[in-house]
Structure formats: C-alpha cells, structure tokens
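Narrative progress, year one. The postdoctoral researcher (J.K.) led the effort to move from monomer predictions toward full complexes, under supervision of the PI. The following entry was the first complex the group processed end to end, covering 774 residues in total.
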Amino acid sequence: MIDPAAAPFPPPFSFTLLATSGPARRGRMTTHRGDIETPAFMPVGTVGTVKAMYPEEVRATGADILLGNTYHLMLRPGAERVAALGGLHTFMDWPRPILTDSGGFQVMSLAKLRKLTEKGVTFRSHLDGTAYELTPERSIEIQTLLDSDIIMQLDECIALPAERGEMERAMELSLRWADRSKAAFGVQPQRALFGIVQGGDDAALRARSAAGLQSIGFDGYSIGGLAVGEPQETMFRVLAELTPLLPADKPRYLMGVGKPDDILGGIARGIDMFDCVHPTRAGRHGHAYTRFGVINLKNARHKDDPRPLDEASPNPNCRRFSRAYLHHLVRTEEMLGAMILSQVNLAYYQELVAGARQAIADDGFAAYAERIKAGWAGGDLPPNQGA
Amino acid sequence: MIDPAAAPFPPPFSFTLLATSGPARRGRMTTHRGDIETPAFMPVGTVGTVKAMYPEEVRATGADILLGNTYHLMLRPGAERVAALGGLHTFMDWPRPILTDSGGFQVMSLAKLRKLTEKGVTFRSHLDGTAYELTPERSIEIQTLLDSDIIMQLDECIALPAERGEMERAMELSLRWADRSKAAFGVQPQRALFGIVQGGDDAALRARSAAGLQSIGFDGYSIGGLAVGEPQETMFRVLAELTPLLPADKPRYLMGVGKPDDILGGIARGIDMFDCVHPTRAGRHGHAYTRFGVINLKNARHKDDPRPLDEASPNPNCRRFSRAYLHHLVRTEEMLGAMILSQVNLAYYQELVAGARQAIADDGFAAYAERIKAGWAGGDLPPNQGA
C-alpha cells in the first residue's frame, strides 16, 4: 500500500493494462488510498457497512475497494454529515479506495414520488418521505462530500425489456448528464470520474453512447442498464458488442453484476470491475458459494453432516464449522450464520477474481473459466454416508 | 492452557481459593479444557453461539468459559445430535470450558403447557409444540451429551415475591432433585456438578437449602431464584446471609446476574461466577457499557459526535469508531452495530471482573468497587462542543 506521508503529492488515479488473455484483461488501478487489482469484485457497503462484517474482515477476503450507495448515504446519515465526520473512509474505518454510485439507480428502484426532468430527479425518501433533488451536479457534490475515490456520473437506468424509443431517450439524457457531470467534477486528479454507457440491449444505441462518452472523456467507463431483467445471453451479447468500442487504456465496470457465472462471463468479454449485493444477501439467506456451486444450508440434508463446507478451501470459515452447525445457525436465524456466510461468499468471490487475474497473466483465462464452471456443474458433495 | 495430549490423564475439575479481600474472593477453577479465573463472567451462548460474535472474539474479550442453555439446545439442534457431532465445544468451535444450565429455568419462562410433578416437568416446545419431558436424570444426560464441563442440577426456580409456603415447596423439591441429580451424575472427575440453592428471599429456607446440598456434596454451589423480580437490595441481603453458609473451598455461582452494578455487589458478597444475557442483548438494542456507565447510542445527541465511545479503553472497538457511526449503525439496524456493541459490552464486563480479580489479589476490592461506581456516577462525556 502506498504511504501518502512518503510522497510530496498523492499519486493521481491511473489504470494500467498488465496482460490480456483473449478479450479478458488483467490490470491495476492506482489511487492514493491503494491499488486495485483487476478484474476486481467490489463488495457493497450499502449504507456505510458491508452487512454483517467488520471492515478488516472484508479486506481479509482480498477486497481492494468497496462500493458505497449514494442514495442510501444521502438519506442516512447525510453527505454533509459524513463530510463533517471526516469522509466515508474515516466514518466506516475503511482506509482503502471506495467507489460510489450516482444514486440514480436506487432513486429509480426505491424512492417514492419520483419526477424526472432534464434538470435531474426529485423524489421522496422511502424511509420518511423527505423530499430530495438529485441532479448531475448534486450527485458529484455528494460523492465528493463522501470523499469517494471513483465517482459515477448520474444516469438514467431503465429496466429491460424496453421500447427502442425509451432506451434511446434515456441514453441521450444520460449523455447530456455525463457532460454536466464532467463539468461539475472539474479537475481532481486524485479522484476518477466514470461515464456510464446506456442504450439497453440495442447495439447501435450502446455504440452511440460509448462514442459520446469518449468524446467527453472519462477516467473509466461503466456499463449500466444490464442485469435489469434481461436474460444472461442478452447481457453477454451486449458486452461482446460493446467492449471493443471502449478504450483499452481505461477501466470498464459492469454495474450491479452479479453471480459468479456472470462475473466469469463478464471477464471473458473484457470487463475489469464488478459489484453486487448478491454474495452478502445470499449469505444472509443461508446460501454459501464454494467451488461446488451454491449450497443451500437451510436444506435438511445438512442437519447431521459433520463435514465443513469445503475442507480444501483457503478460507478458514469453510473448514472450521460443520455443515450441521451452519444449518443450525441458519435455522435458528442467528446473526453468526449471516456473518459466516457473508464472509464465505465474499471470500469465494475474491478467490474467483484472484484466480482469474492469475489465469489472464498466464494467458489461460478460457481454460480457467471452464475448470471453475466444471466444478460448479459437478455439484455439492454427495450426502454424508455417516448421517 | 493445558495440553491434554501432554498429560496421561486429563486433570480433574478443581477449585483453588487464591486470595480474599473481605468477603470478596479471587480463585481459579481448573478443567481439562483450561483454567477459569474467578470472579468470572460467563457470556451466554444461548443456542450454540454468543449472539453476533465469533467464538475467538468472545475469547479475545477475556472470557474463560461460556454458558450454554440446555432448554434451547435440547430443542434445536437436540442433545443427541450435538453429541453425534462431537459435543458442543466442537459444534460451535469453542475449545474452552462450557457450563450448562439444567434447562429448568427456561422451561418455566418459555415453554408451553408445563406440568410439574415429583418426577420432573413435561412441556411443549415454544417453537413447534413438540412434547418433552425433563427430569433430573434427563437433564444430567442432556448436559453430558453436550459434553458440558460444569453441569447444573435440575431445580425449580420461582419468581419473587412469593408465598413462603411456595418458596419452601420449591426449595424442598429442588433438594430432592439435587439428590437424584448427584446419583445420575455418578463419578465423573473431569466434570463438575453444581447444586442450586433455592429458598426465595427467606434466610431460613436458604440456610436449609444450603445445608441440604452440602450434605449431598457438590463441586460447586449455584444460587438460583434471585434476579427474578426482587429489588437489588433483597438480592444483596440474601447473598450476604447465604454465602457465609457455603463452603469456602467450592465455587459459588450467582445464576443469571446481571448488570455491572449487580456483579460488583455479588463479588463483594463472596460470589465467584456470574452469567447474563444482558451485555449482548443490551448491545443489540444500541446500549454500550463503558467506564462512564451505559450509553444509549440511539440518542440523537450522538449523531454528529466524532468522538469514540472511550478513547482510553483498552478495547479497539471503543476507540476506532465514532459515536456518530455507532448511532448510524443502530438507527439503520445494521448487524455491524449489534456486532460491535455486543463485543464492547462483553469486553467491558470482562474488564470489570479482571479488575476485580486484581483488586482482590491486592486486598483492595472495596476501593476498586467504589472507584468503578464513581466512574459510572460521573456519567458520560458532556455533549460534543463541536457538534
């Protein structure tokens, strides 16, 4: 990790492409709060905490960067309050990089009485009905108050399937907001500003969005408007069409994705960054991700099983607790069950992307992905014979 | 810690009185799973987990021993299942000593359709209505299946205030059950069996109970039927009358007690062991125990306060997170809030008894207790001026 005290000026944000394996990319982002090895999975610290985990536990899984949700944080505790308390890193005791979203996605999915105009969006909090306005400029201001390292432009993300006219309208609005976001962001070399490609599942719209964003110029390019209801094959097709149109020397971030299989597919199509609440949410619901695929610990097959989740895992939590104990914790709704399984899932996600990074460096990503998927297809251990 | 592999036979349970300071006692219990320094506070691992904490976190607070609840464990996952999975220590990955209660107290407070007879108690699970029978013999059997290190006799615990006749009846029944418990326990030098003194708030009944139990002979003496609705002064009076009647060379355990103030008062009256769900439950409800007393983090006075709970605490969690962050976690009902505050409170309880042990060794317990209570009386930090 870089020691800011050792350098006269903090290093600016940068991205270096280190290796490729087909379209798959191995890279590194440098920030004044530490490096981010890519492909990277970013755990989601929704409201200033990765649910059910201490920040050092999250780091120990291998995470270089967290995601914070602007919508949640602007409501509680409020961006100005976080700034007065020293910024989000200090607030949650996570000294490493943080990426924030623009807030727009959750305004669309959670807030009440939304009204979208050219200027921005007004809405009422889903918690207490308080009225807010979010504009491209205010979103940048909030993310700066949070002291985010990687900032997203405000965009309009629509669900799929959608009419072409609607996809085009939202994409064009997002481009105009991208322009205003860039102006509001100004010159801040220690932070990165990412533009967001929209355009639904339409290749021509996606291409226009990508070109428009590049003419504005961003430090990285996010891909929004996917994993919003479309089949995985549609998402993969859009990615395969889009990533060749993005600059090779900037990071590419597929927003809100996904399950392990989505992540391998995204990496295979040239994506560098991912985030998703899925691993921690699945953990809270009793699901564990391992090299055997997903294991539902609520299932009664585990109730007498003394075997750990995966005795060959590098993660101690996968080796030290029996499936019977995990089943018991899930059935009794004990917090420790959510704590362990959130950790297990984040650790598995980090193991997955760390393996991908190594495989790309060795120019063997396709074989790596096939080997991992074969493990999942093989399924969980057979039922315990002793039980 | 004792290495069982190094000894040809595991050492038997024993208790050594090391020092006194007035009636306050400094001692040590030895078990084949490790020593227990007394006065000891035992965190409650209700259903096979100290809520919201990993076992190593509990150990790191200074806990030498946990308490497991027989009632909860016999319902889920079931004593025979725990035994088949290697016992409670293996099940929950806590290799150190465990004390189990008899199940009787929670049968009385939680179960449905209870029927008490000379033989024992029948009841239906509060979870699913399944019928169970708990007798003195079955309670010993269950606690042995759990592989408990310190086993409690089954007793009948009644609430206070109560009629003298009712207190006498329950006390006499508990004595007969003590006799049967001793017979059922047999000879097991690696485990301890504790009798339970009953008799409500009546000194004569308590004395008869204490004498009756000693004529049977136990490895330790629990004091039940307190902290069941009576004022603290009543509890302290009963303790002051009772502990001189108990043998000096056996440990004394005040069951289900209590708040920090109760614990200092119990130590002052010759108690060696305590347990209570209060510190973890209070933590889940947003209350933090520190040398300033109890702090309600739900209170809006903390929302802009950058100060930690207690910057002079030896516990990192008391120093690293701002009150504003803890307030935020409590208000947003994030699990991390419960995790941190459970740890903070257990660590404070352990700090309290560790200080008492040192003070007794130095023959200065009374002054120690006054100093601690003066700290609580002084109250929390004044409101943050910067806020």
